[in-house]
Design a protein that fits this description.
By secondary structure, the chain is of the alpha/beta class. It folds into two domains: about 160 residues, HAD superfamily/HAD-like (Rossmann fold), CATH 3.40.50.1000; about 80 residues. The chain contains ten helices and eight strands. A six-stranded parallel β-sheet has the order 4-3-2-5-6-7, with helices on both faces. A two-stranded antiparallel ribbon has the order 1-8. α1 packs across α2, α1 runs antiparallel to α5 and α2 crosses α4. The longest helix is centred in the middle third of the chain and has 18 residues. The protein is elongated, with a radius of gyration of 19 Å. The two termini are about 30 Å apart.
Length: about 250
C-alpha cells in the first residue's frame, strides 16, 4: 500500500483556524460603518461586499481608500471624523474575529511536534496582516501568505506555489485544509496538494466568497487531522479520497 510523506500542512484562516464572519453580525458591523459615514446602508453593504476582491488583491491598501472608493461610487462625500469612526469599528471587529477555534492551538502544537512545517494562505484584506502578529496563532507558523500583501487570490496557482516555495516543499507533500471559500480546495488539488474540507457542524449563517461544492475528504474539527498520521508524519492514502468531482 502506498504511503505518502507529508512535510507541510497549509491552512486557510477564516472558517478554518478561526470562525467565519457571521452574516447577521457582519451586516450589523457594516451598518454601523455606513451610519458613521452618513451613507445609505444598503448601497454601502453592496459596494463593500462586491469590492472584496479589490481589497483582497491589495488594490485598496487602506481602509480609508476603500471607504473613499465607496463614497465616490455613491457620489456622497464623507468627513474625516466619520472615516475614523468607521475604521475603528472595522478594526475592532477584525480583532474580535481573529480568535483561534477551540482546538486550533493544540492541533498546531501537535503538528509541529510531529515535525511538519506549518503554512497559511488567506484571502484577506489589509486589516488582517496589520493585526496578525498580535494574535496567539501567529507564533505557530513557518510562513504566512496574505493575498492583499502579494496581490494574488485563491484559486490562482501562483499563491499555492509561492507557499510551497517559501516552505521549501513540493505540492505533493502538502496537505491543504480549508472551508471551501474562494474555490480554494480545487485550486490546491489542481497543483497536486491534498485538500481537505473543514466544516464545523455547529457553524451557521457564515459569509463565504465564491464557495464551491466539494465531495472529497471532509473533517468536522481541526483535531481530526491528527488521527490520520503516524509519528513519522506519514499516512495511508486509502484513508482519503483525493479524486473528488468538483462542482463550482
Amino acid at each position: 500500500m502506498q504511503v505518502t510523506k507529508i512535510k507541510a500542512v497549509i491552512f486557510d484562516l477564516f472558517g478554518t483556524l478561526i470562525e467565519n464572519f457571521n452574516a447577521q453580525e457582519y451586516r450589523q458591523v457594516l451598518s454601523r460603518m455606513a451610519s458613521s459615514l452618513l451613507l445609505p446602508e444598503a448601497s454601502f453593504y453592496d459596494l463593500w461586499y462586491n469590492s472584496f476582491n479589490q481589497r483582497a488583491l491589495g488594490i485598496f491598501k487602506t481602509l480609508e481608500e476603500s471607504i473613499r472608493f465607496i463614497s465616490k461610487e455613491l457620489n456622497k462625500p464623507v468627513v474625516k471624523s466619520g472615516i475614523e469612526e468607521a475604521i475603528r469599528i472595522r478594526l475592532d471587529y477584525t480583532k474580535k474575529t481573529l480568535v483561534p477555534r477551540e482546538d486550533a492551538i493544540e492541533t498546531l502544537k501537535q503538528l509541529k511536534k510531529i515535525g511538519f512545517k506549518i503554512g497559511l494562505i488567506s484571502d484577506c484584506t489589509f486589516e488582517v496582516p496589520q493585526i496578525w502578529n498580535t494574535t496567539t496563532l501567529s507564533q505557530y507558523f513557518d510562513n504566512v501568505i496574505f493575498s492583499c500583501s502579494v496581490g494574488i487570490v485563491k484559486p490562482d496557482p501562483r499563491i499555492y506555489h509561492l507557499a510551497c516555495k517559501n516552505l521549501k516543499v513540493k505540492p505533493k507533500n502538502c496537505l491543504y485544509i480549508g472551508d471551501g471559500g474562494s474555490r480554494e480546495l480545487s485550486g490546491a488539488l489542481h497543483i497536486g496538494m491534498f485538500p481537505i474540507l473543514i466544516r464545523s457542524p455547529y457553524e451557521k449563517d457564515s459569509v463565504r466568497y465564491e464557495e464551491e461544492d466539494w465531495n472529497g475528504q471532509r473533517i468536522n474539527s481541526l483535531s481530526e487531522i491528527l488521527t490520520y498520521f503516524n509519528r513519522r508524519g506519514s499516512y495511508k492514502e486509502s484513508n482519503f479520497n483525493f479524486s473528488p468531482t468538483l462542482r463550482d
